[in-house]
Amino acid sequence: MEYIKIKFGNDFHAVRSNLENVFHSINPIFRVCNRAWNPQMDIYETSDEIIIRAEIAGVDKEDLGVEINNKAVRIFGKREELPRVENATYRLAEIQYGCFERILFLPSLIDPEIVSASYLNGFLQIRLAKIPMNVVHKVPISDRD
Fold first, then answer.
1. pLDDT tens digits for range 94-103
2. Which CATH number characterizes residue 108's domain?
3. Is there a contact between 74 and 101 (Cβ–Cβ < 8 Å)?
4. Which of 9, 25, 96, 145 has the fewest CB atoms within 10 Å distance of its CB?
5. Rounded to 5, what percent of the chain is helix, strand, coil?
6. What is the rounded CA–CA span in Å between residue 66 and residue 74?
7. Across the strands, what pairs with 66?
């Protein structure tokens, strides 16, 4: 069984991402990364977990990466272009190829130790366990400083 690599981190190049968003809205000539396409994704949550589903058909698992911290998930990878048919006239060419990157900010805090990911039929699914908000931790008070 092959596993999808998940990397845990503290920051996902927050400054770069913020600048990238500003530059993209001003002029695409200022593109910071070489992202070529933007896969469609769904995020939904239950009382116990957050589920992310990404439509990334044609991406090999070896060309796919997932990084997680307690605030966001970064999904990135590369879809190789299929060879063009010689002596053919293309009437429609909408399939996008190249690198992609999505940084998704999570609606709730998650436990980065309880994460699973699967890839089947062109869909990546990531399941993230939410940290229960109703858990109270009692703090003992000592007699000394």
1. 889 999 999 9
2. 2.60.40.790
3. yes
4. 145
5. 15, 40, 50
6. 6
7. 6, 75
